[in-house]
Description:
Blueprint: E1 15-22, H1 25-35, H2 39-42, H3 44-48, H4 59-73, E2 85-91, E3 100-112, E4 119-129, E5 135-146
Antiparallel strand pairs: 1-3, 2-5, 3-4, 4-5
Amino acid sequence: MSGKVYWEDFSVGQVIKLGMRAVPREEIIEFARRYDPQPFHTDEEAAKNSIYGGLIASGWHTCALMMRLLYDGLIKRAASMGSPGIDNIRWLKPVRPGDTLRAQMTIMETHASASRPDRGLIKSNWEVFNQNDELVMTMVGVGMYRRRDSTT
């Protein structure tokens, strides 16, 4: 997709690659101290003795990273109108310091709004992989996008 992206530009089955991002140790600890201060996110010694065997990122941090990849990879050039929500989040594998995450979204459904003709909705499956191509998180979300013909 190049140029401004509108609702009409999405099609069922389409896969949109959203980019990559490294996850530094310091960022994991900083995020967790502020928002999810469980010891396996903030304290390397405590994390070694946890079921994870070492420091891991908060799942909420992984969600925030996914959102950043979504913004950089699509939303900043799209006629996005926000989202009514997320239907499902699954954290499948821990994200560890030094991991490099990549994300993609697959369009599952598209439909025009019946009550608001200026927009359409897309339902998509978001997947986040680490550098070993292991699936670490999935989310199903709904996004609202302006319709191209409503901008004239």
